[in-house]
Design a protein that fits this description.
Number of domains: 1
CATH topology: Immunoglobulin-like
CATH class: Mainly Beta
Largest sheet: 5 strands, antiparallel
CATH architecture: Sandwich
Oligomer: single chain
């Protein structure tokens, strides 16, 4: 397995962690796509190029991607080739905790290392120790997300991540070894769209974090929608209109 990280030339930051990341609705993913496909072809489309939601050395996803667009980021992460990796707490939208003093050599990275937030009990269910004894403090926000809160809400980020995992598991074309061809490269103002395929199954994935609907045309006839978020996609023959702030996975005949 190889990993795309937040340094070097992968342009992974273009998606999640620059001044205007793609999944904020304002950025450009086209250089990332070009670099990804270059790496994909160099690896002879073998092995796993893994894209993590984050790790302990980078800002949390929620610091740069706000609100419902976080669900679009996971629609992308859970429909790409390679093994998907979710950094603890990203599935509930845990915050980057601003202004923490480094105790572990993390410096600015310490804000991504706060304790997991399970519930509304002492220390968010992470530990029964006194709060001042915790190695890194909890997020002090009284409205901080917890697993307990999100289990209780059908349209929570956690619920959407579970749904996406189930869709991925149900379709080999969306899993780690399925092939990928990009239909739209996410240039500024445009969605990311790609066809995943494996053993005769073909699925169009379209993710549009922008504020405008976009039309896409693909080779083949579009059929059943197996996943949608937001307004999803309006389908006619081999074309579809993917709504603003929406995602759709559509079978291709």
């Amino acid at each position: 397995m190889d990993f795309l990280l937040h340094f070097g030339s992968s342009h992974y930051n273009d998606l999640f962690r620059n001044e205007k990341p793609f999944f904020s609705g304002e950025g450009d993913a086209s250089t990332f796509v070009s670099k990804y496909m270059d790496s994909y072809e160099r690896s002879e489309r073998k092995g796993l190029i893994c894209i993590p939601s984050g790790n302990h050395d980078m800002d949390r996803l929620a610091r740069h991607i706000k609100g419902e667009r976080r669900k679009l980021a996971f629609a992308f992460l859970l429909s790409m080739p390679g093994a998907p990796y979710i950094y603890y707490g990203d599935e509930i939208g845990m915050n980057y905790v601003e202004g923490l003093n480094s105790v572990e050599g993390g410096y600015g990275r310490t804000g991504s290392r706060s304790p997991m937030q399970w519930d509304s009990s002492e220390n968010a269910g992470f530990s029964s120790a006194l709060a001042e004894k915790l190695y890194i403090p909890l997020d002090p926000d009284p409205d901080r997300p917890t697993v307990e809160k999100q289990i209780a809400v059908n349209n929570s980020l956690r619920s959407e991540v579970k749904k996406l995992i189930a869709v991925r598991q149900a379709h080999k074309a969306l899993q780690s070894l399925g092939d990928i061809e990009f239909v739209c490269d996410g240039a500024k103002g445009r969605p990311l769209a790609y066809v995943r395929s494996f053993d005769g199954e073909r699925i169009l994935v379209a993710v549009n974090p922008t504020d405008s609907a976009c039309e896409l045309t693909v080779g083949g006839s579009l059929g059943e929608v197996i996943y949608s978020f937001g307004s999803g996609a309006e389908i006619s023959g081999n074309s579809c209109v993917i709504g603003a702030g929406s995602a759709a996975f559509v079978k291709l005949d």
